Amino acid sequence: MMALEKHAATASHWSAAQYQTVFASSGTRRVALLIEEDARMNGFLVARALDREWEIENVAVAGPTRRRGLGTRLLGEFLDLARREGADAVFLEVRESNRAARRLYEKWAFEESGQRKRYYRNPEEDALVYRLYFG
């Protein structure tokens, strides 16, 4: 996952320690969805359950495979899973400048619900909070 997101400018860029902590934490329900083609990881999505709400924590799609629907596939599979798990809502943060991701979330009916000032580092940037309620 780190190798893939290293080349994805808009990814969260977690460290190895962060990945280890995320997947080793007990008591937290998490899911990691992967897309592999020809033994190469081309995309992933990591999310966690917070009571009846899910947070998408990290998403990345490999540069050469962008614009092929992989992000749509990952998000669609995840939203199906969240619904089956009884979620009321899903939320995420996205870089304000990441227009492609914002369009993808809006296509799935996510709505902008807030802003987190200076949320991202390297480069520093505001995050927009997007939320989808299941009705």
End-to-end Cα distance, whole Å, is 33 Å
Overall 3D geometry?
A: globular
Determine the structural class based on helices, strands and strand pairing: alpha+beta
In the CATH hierarchy, what is the architecture at level 2? 3-Layer(aba) Sandwich
Question: Roughly how many Å is the radius of gyration?
Answer: 14 Å
In the predicted model, the low-confidence regions spanning at least 5 consecutive residues are: none
**Total strands:** 6
CATH class reads: Alpha Beta
Count of all domains: 1
Brief synopsis:
With 135 residues, the protein is of the alpha+beta class.
Give an overview of the whole structure:
This protein is α+β, with helices and mostly antiparallel strands and 135 residues long. It contains 4 helices and 6 strands, in the order H-H-E-E-E-H-E-H-E-E. The longest helix is centred in the middle third of the chain and has 15 residues. The protein is globular and about 40 Å long.
